[in-house]
Recover the amino acids of this structure.
C-alpha cells in the first residue's frame, strides 16, 4: 500500500470527527481488507460475463446475494422487466476478393436477418455527408473510428440510424484498439432494436478491408445475423444501513457487464468496492445521521436501465446524494457531475486527504455514460472519484480481455480506502446544504457544462 493511501486511512478519524459526534476509528482494520476482492474473483470466475438475461447475470446475482446475506444484511432484490438482447451465433465471412472469416461481434440490440450476401463499401466515420458519398443503398457499410478533423466522433448508434435510413444492409465498425480487440457497445438507444445488423470488427481486419475497398477491389461479404431483442427480467440488489433520518445517501455501481469477457474492470471492480464499503461501514460505523443504501444496478450497459428504474420508483425527495463507482481506481480527486454545490464538501475532504492533491482535481464534468445520469437529470447531487490516467485494465473494457487477471488489487483497495470515510462523512454532513436542482437548473447545468448528450437522454426518458 503506498504512503498516500496510508495517510488517507490515518486521517479518517480526523475527518469523520469534524462532521460527526460519533468518532469511530475506521483505521487499522482496513489495512488487510480483501473480502470484496475475493468476491470479485468469485463473480468473474464462477459467473463470468453478466450481460442482462444471461446465465452469468443470474448466477452473479445469486453469488452477490449469498455473500451479502453472509454479512448479515437483509438483501432487497428488486425484479423488473426491461428490453433485453440475446447474442446469436453470428458470422461474417469475406467472400471476395479473398475468403476470410472476419473477427467481428454484434453490437447490443443488433437484429437477426436471413443469411445474405452483400457488397461492402467504406462510409468514413459515419457522418451523413460521408454516408451519402459512399452510396450505401443495398450495401453493407464499413465505418472507421477516425473522425473528420474538427468534427466530433459520431456515436455508433447514430451512424447505424443514418445508414439504415440510407438503405444500408449492415454496419461494421472498426475498433480503434490494436491487437484483435473488438469492443462491444449499444447499437441502438432507448431499448429499441437496431434497424440493421451491426457489428464491431478488429482494427486489423477493419483496416485491411478499408485498404482493399480503397484499392477499388469489389469486396463482398456473407452475413449470418441471428441476434434477437426480447424482454428480460433483471434485478437490482440493495442493502440499507438505516440512519437517524430516513433520507439517504445512495451508493451505486452497475452489476451487469458485456458478455465477451468477465466484466472484471467494467464493472466487477465497482461491485466489489461497494460490497467492501458496505461491509466496513456496517462493521465500523453503522450509526449515521442519514441512511446509506448500497445499490447494485443492472442493465447499465444496454442503456442505464437499472438506475432509471430505481429513480423512477423512489421518492426522490429522500435522496440526499448519489455516489457512483464505475471502473473507479486510484482516486486523487472528485467529479461532482455538474453539481457545484458539492464542492465545499469535496474541498473539506481534499484538505484532509493528502492523496486528493489539490482543488484542481475536483472536476465538475457530467457525461451520459453511467448510473449517476438518472439522478442528476432529476436534480439529485451525484459524486464520483477522479483519477489521473487510465485504469490499467481499462483498455480491455467491453471486450474478451476484461478478465480478473487484469485487476490490480491496489486499484480496488484505493477506492475503498478513500471512499469509505467519504461516504460516512457524507452520511453525517447535514451542515452541507445540497438542495435538488429544479428542471430549469438541470437544463442550465447541461448548457454550462457542454453536456448536450444528456439532453438527448433527458428527452428519451421524458424527464
Ligand atoms: Zn461501466
Amino acid at each position: 500500500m503506498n504512503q498516500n493511501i496510508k495517510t488517507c486511512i490515518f486521517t479518517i478519524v480526523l475527518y469523520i470527527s469534524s462532521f460527526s459526534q460519533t468518532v469511530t476509528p475506521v483505521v487499522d482494520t482496513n489495512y488487510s481488507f480483501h473480502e470484496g476482492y475475493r468476491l470479485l474473483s468469485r463473480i468473474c470466475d464462477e459467473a463470468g460475463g453478466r450481460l442482462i438475461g444471461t446465465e452469468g447475470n443470474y448466477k452473479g446475482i445469486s453469488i452477490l446475494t449469498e455473500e451479502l446475506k453472509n454479512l448479515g444484511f437483509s438483501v432487497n432484490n428488486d425484479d423488473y422487466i426491461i428490453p433485453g438482447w440475446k447474442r446469436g451465433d453470428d458470422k461474417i465471412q469475406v467472400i471476395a476478393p479473398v475468403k476470410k472469416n472476419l473477427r467481428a461481434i454484434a453490437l447490443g440490440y443488433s437484429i437477426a436477418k436471413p443469411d445474405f450476401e452483400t457488397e461492402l463499401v467504406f462510409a468514413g466515420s459515419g457522418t451523413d455527408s460521408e454516408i451519402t458519398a459512399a452510396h450505401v443503398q443495398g450495401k453493407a457499410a464499413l465505418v472507421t473510428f477516425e473522425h473528420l478533423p474538427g468534427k466530433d466522433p459520431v456515436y455508433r448508434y447514430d451512424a447505424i440510424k443514418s445508414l439504415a435510413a440510407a438503405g444500408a444492409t449492415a454496419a461494421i465498425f472498426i475498433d480503434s484498439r490494436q491487437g484483435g480487440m473488438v469492443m462491444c457497445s449499444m447499437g441502438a438507444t432507448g431499448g429499441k432494436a437496431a434497424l440493421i445488423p451491426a457489428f464491431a470488427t478488429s482494427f486489423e481486419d477493419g483496416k485491411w478491408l478499408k485498404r482493399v475497398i480503397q484499392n477499388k477491389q469489389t469486396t463482398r461479404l456473407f452475413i449470418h445475423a441471428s441476434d434477437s431483442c426480447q424482454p428480460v427480467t433483471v434485478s437490482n440488489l440493495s442493502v440499507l444501513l438505516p440512519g437517524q433520518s430516513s433520507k439517504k445517501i445512495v451508493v451505486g455501481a452497475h452489476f451487469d457487464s458485456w458478455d465477451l469477457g468477465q466484466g472484471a474492470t467494467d464493472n466487477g471492480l465497482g461491485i466489489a468496492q461497494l460490497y467492501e464499503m458496505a461491509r466496513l461501514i456496517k462493521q465500523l460505523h453503522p450509526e449515521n445521521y442519514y441512511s446509506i443504501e448500497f445499490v447494485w444496478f443492472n442493465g447499465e450497459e444496454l442503456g442505464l436501465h437499472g438506475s432509471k428504474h430505481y429513480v423512477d420508483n423512489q421518492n426522490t425527495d429522500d435522496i440526499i446524494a448519489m455516489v457512483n463507482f464505475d471502473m473507479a481506481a486510484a482516486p486523487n480527486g472528485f467529479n461532482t457531475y455538474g453539481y457545484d454545490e458539492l464542492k465545499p464538501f469535496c474541498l473539506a475532504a481534499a484538505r484532509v486527504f493528502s492523496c486528493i492533491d489539490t482543488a484542481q482535481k475536483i472536476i465538475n464534468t457530467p457525461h451520459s455514460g453511467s448510473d449517476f445520469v438518472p439522478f442528476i437529470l432529476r436534480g439529485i447531487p451525484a459524486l464520483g472519484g477522479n483519477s489521473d490516467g487510465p485504469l490499467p485494465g481499462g483498455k480491455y473494457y467491453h471486450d474478451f480481455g476484461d478478465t480478473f487477471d487484469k485487476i490490480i488489487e491496489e486499484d480496488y483497495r484505493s477506492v475503498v480506502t478513500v471512499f469509505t470515510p467519504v461516504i460516512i462523512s457524507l452520511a453525517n454532513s447535514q451542515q452541507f446544504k445540497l438542495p435538488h436542482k429544479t428542471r430549469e437548473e438541470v437544463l442550465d447545468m447541461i448548457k454550462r457544462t457542454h453536456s448536450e448528450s444528456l439532453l438527448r437522454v433527458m428527452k428519451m426518458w421524458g424527464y
DSSP finds 13 helices and 16 strands in the chain.
